[in-house]
Structures
1.
Amino acid sequence: HEDATGSWSWHGRESALAGLRRPALTGDIQIHNAAAVLAVIEAMGLGQMLTSDKIDGAFGKLKLNGRFQLVNTRRTFVLDVAHNPASAAVLADSLQDLGHPGPVTAVVGILADKDVPGIIEPLSKLVDAWVAVPLQGSRAEPATNLARQIANCTNKPCRIAESIPGALQEE
């Protein structure tokens, strides 16, 4: 549970911790994810390891490349591997919280066995321009098919680029 100061508390079956700092990863979902990790640690019989200092130290330094990873150059890039509707909804919430003032372009590659409409729909109101790119591997959705699905889901055109670097250079 998060409190008004931005800290949060966790109550397990045998342990309780209060005044924990927010995890370093972006998004409100990270508190839920951290709580799940603490529950697993306690369930494994390692509850003695659960101290505020250890938890704050571990979650405070945590980085996951590709999970709402901000890269600032002359433009701001948000790298995220949202691969299902739930993770796309979290990405949409995080983008909304970021409050970027300019146009947003999404460069998208998705595997063929994924729910393309379910991934695109939560993002559709936040994205101004779409670019489909091919992924490597036999499970990849061809960029032409992906672009068609994105255009159908969003009622916006979707460009096709040969690669991610190519999509970024065309901007």
2.
Amino acid sequence: DSSAPGRPAWSAPLELAGERGAASAVFPSGAVVVAARERLLCLDRAGNELWSRTLGEGTPRRLALASGIVVGLARDGSARAFDARLGLPLWTLALEEPEAWTGPLLGEAHALFVAQAGAEAPRVLVLDLHTGRARADFRLPPGEWKAPLEASAWVSGGRLIVPAFANRAPA
């Protein structure tokens, strides 16, 4: 019985695109968007395919979902957004220095990407979630930014919150 506790409700054979597993985003309804090899697909809560888009080199290595929009940071250095319900492409933006960028962080109609390269303070690029237009591009104050910011930062009240742990890991 697949509904027994601890047992998967469904499984799907996928050729995953991620180096360390699949990039995915989960809907409140239980559907999931997964970056499979050279395509993006959406599966419902029973594992049935709702939509699929061929992407080639633009396959996301990270995905996030907000306001009905799936945003991904692709292997080719582009930020891409899709309508979550139908999988329709909304916008694409090529980022300079593709290896330096992480994200996306989504919040309050914005998609944020962070570039951490070398000794420079991290650069934050804020895009309009619906159009992909740049709304802000700035550097964080100088400091020792050791943790990947996409794992520790968040957006709240229209502000980017970035904890600094003064050379210590959080408790």
